[in-house]
């Protein structure tokens, strides 16, 4: 048994997860691909097997606490980086329809290789900046769930993500311990973009104890067409 499998098995109960042998094999293979490519291209500063299992895989899987990941649920992971949280969620619930959005071309190639190697069906990787992705009519307000992890502060992240959420859908931002400051700062952005703060789920990461906060924002009406603004503007002048 590999370290990835041992850690995931040890922590599964804390997150109310059930992982099959096949899923554990996929996580092992994902880790192997990650560390191999990381030798020539920086995907992550975390490469220790136990730390990847906890800080990347288990952390990503905390998202399942926010919504039932039913078959056919359309999910987009904006600014996915090396595939977190999207790929672990897809391994855990293979029936979801997943889109991964990443702006860096080398990461896009890595993600496509992972999708093929793990045999992840109904999963596509899109090379785009977050600001441009939601301006495309194919993607605007088309997703049941939009997730983002360690991408930007919440006012900026809301502008990137909420335009992709369909009315009635959910945007989940994965945040650390300073979440109250960010939610206060994001009030204006959420109001403009027609999102309503629904809940903040506070939890401790299994086997590590670090605090995680899942900020849940419900889409209550269509976001104004002018958002997101052109590339760079959300960061320079947050709403």
Automatic annotation (TrEMBL):
Main location: cytoplasm
NCBIfam families reported in the protein's UniProt record: rsmG_gidB (TIGR00138)
Binding site for S-adenosyl-L-methionine: 79, 84, 130-131, 149
Main enzyme class: transferase
Record-level Gene Ontology MF annotations: rRNA (guanine-N7-)-methyltransferase activity
InterPro entries in the cross-refs: rRNA_ssu_MeTfrase_G (IPR003682), SAM-dependent_MTases_sf (IPR029063)
Recorded family membership: Belongs to the methyltransferase superfamily. RNA methyltransferase RsmG family.
Its EC number(s): 2.1.1.-
Keyword set, alphabetical order: Cytoplasm, Methyltransferase, rRNA processing, S-adenosyl-L-methionine, Transferase
Transmembrane annotation, as ranges: none
Protein known as: Ribosomal RNA small subunit methyltransferase G
UniProt-listed PANTHER family: S-ADENOSYL-L-METHIONINE-DEPENDENT METHYLTRANSFERASES SUPERFAMILY PROTEIN
Statement: the UniProt record of this protein carries the keyword Cytoplasm: yes
Organism of origin: Pelotomaculum schinkii
Coiled-coil annotated residue ranges, if any: none
Physiological role: Specifically methylates the N7 position of a guanine in 16S rRNA.
Top-level taxonomy: Bacteria, Bacillati, Bacillota, Clostridia, Eubacteriales
Keyword Transferase: yes
Domain of life: Bacteria
Cellular component, GO annotation: cytosol
Compartments where located: Cytoplasm
Xref: CDD domains: AdoMet_MTases
HAMAP family in UniProt: 16SrRNA_methyltr_G
